[in-house]
Backbone:
């Protein structure tokens, strides 16, 4: 299937499921099962509950999709809070 034939929708992540899957509620109130796109996985872009995302879907199966973009949020990053984990060396 060509990329031009994909449908794009905006939505919000409502649940993080095991194995890299997410439950996403679209703007039209539909709930779908989505997974992260390869580039997002490659560059380790983290997606959590409440994140606004863009989902690509095939016109043949409107219950599944691929998360292709995560909008930046106003939430601070965990490392920006000033707390750091202690690094210990094992012998």
Residues:
């Amino acid at each position: 299937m060509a990329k031009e034939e994909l449908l794009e929708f905006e939505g919000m992540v409502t649940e993080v499921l095991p194995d890299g899957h997410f439950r996403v509620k679209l703007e039209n109130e539909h709930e779908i099962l989505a997974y992260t796109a390869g580039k997002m996985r490659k560059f380790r872009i983290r997606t959590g509950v409440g994140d606004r995302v863009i989902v690509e879907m095939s016109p043949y199966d409107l219950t599944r999709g691929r998360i292709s973009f995560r909008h930046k949020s106003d939430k601070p990053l965990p490392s920006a809070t000033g707390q750091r984990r202690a690094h210990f060396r094992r012998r």
Q: What stands out?
A: Strands lie at 7-17, 21-26, 31-36, 52-58, 61-70. The mean pLDDT is 86.
